[in-house]
Amino acid sequence: MSTEGDGTVQDPINREPDPETLVKSFLTPSQARDTAEFKAYDRNHGPIQHIDASKHRVTVRSDSTAESRAVPKPVDLKLSVDDLHSRFRQHTVTCALQCAGNRRHEMRSRLKEVSGIDWGDGAVMNAEWTGPLLRDVLIAAGVVEKNESHEGLHVQLECNATEVQEDDWYGGSIPLAVAMDPEREVVLALKMNGEPLSDRHGAPVRAITPGIVGARSVKWLDTIVVSLSESQNHYQQHDYKVLPPEATSPEKAEELGLWQKGVVPPMLDNDINSVVAVPGEDGAELHRDSGGRVRIAGYAIPKGKDGPVVNVCVSIDRGGAWHDAKILTDGDEYTTQLANTGKAGAEGEDDGASKLRDNKFSWVLWEVSITCEPAEDVSIWSKATDRGGNTQSEIEGSWNLRGVGYNAVEGRRGIKIV
């Protein structure tokens, strides 16, 4: 079944909210509660799918290359959506899901032309995802739990429900060691923010790979394969890779042999990043309050599993002075489980607020008020640091052909302060 507005293989649905709207909610709702307005970004390579959950099955298997200490006998398991609900402990992870091309417009406009959708700063969402852990499903299917046996194996994640732009199906993969790591909290999500997944977000089941670029969080998941090889899908082998600067065109990348196995690794972990969302675009005006202060706000994402973000600092004079931003931990109307526990935390802090602060895969929302004089052509820089010690370092960022993984410190240019 399909409906108008689902997109097509040739023209899929890809959209993002404006950044100022995005940072109004700690948890990003799929849609506004009082209107039908979409609040979370959409990234698709083909049409949105509408799948009958009662008939859907997820096949878990191994291929012949996977036989090892980790997979002592062939894996072959079929699970219904009800099985995923009833046979496994349900786990909730809060994580930021980010398109690898988030901030591509900045790279394109500030450095040079790139290949890809002209994403601004809103190709990211922060949500609670609930479902069984992938590791629990793999163990039930026969994968050995011991860590030392996972080296060199991969978990391929597939959606075979529809043709996509560059292939007959969509897929990606992650190392088996990542899938089996309890600290990575990879889930087969059945719910988003406490509600059943919507079709546009991958119902009835999707993979959620916390701390990893969104391309690996496969929607409408129907097949899981343990293998010695990465996914052979186009989007694992020929896209979502940070190519070196000498790859100035797809043809040049081919000539240099960059698509050959092992030459350029597929993107996996998100890099440390922060985004200035208020003001929401280059050239905007910022109005000082009665005390001569301007308010600047945004979000920040940790690197991989090294979160949470513990510090964000902001400069409006090209790094001459840095101002520590306040990291917000109070939640909001869309915060479902984390901020409403009703338990007391350390030092009198609400336990929900403590969890918001400590979640290692979540974004943080931040804001800062800076006293300043009226000025023109101001650049606003923001720089995040996570618990693992990762800090943004490049002021303008570096260029790559696909415009992925952009995390420049300079957030906004040409701002007028009045």
TrEMBL record:
One of its GO terms (molecular function) is molybdopterin cofactor binding. One of its GO terms (cellular component) is mitochondrion. Pfam families: Mo-co_dimer, Oxidored_molyb. Signal peptide: none annotated. Residues 45-235 form the Oxidoreductase molybdopterin-binding domain. The keyword Metal-binding applies. GO terms for biological process: sulfur compound metabolic process. Residues 1-20 are annotated as: Disordered. Keywords: Metal-binding, Molybdenum, Oxidoreductase. Residues 269-407 form the Moybdenum cofactor oxidoreductase dimerisation domain. Its cofactor is Mo-molybdopterin. This is Sulfite oxidase.
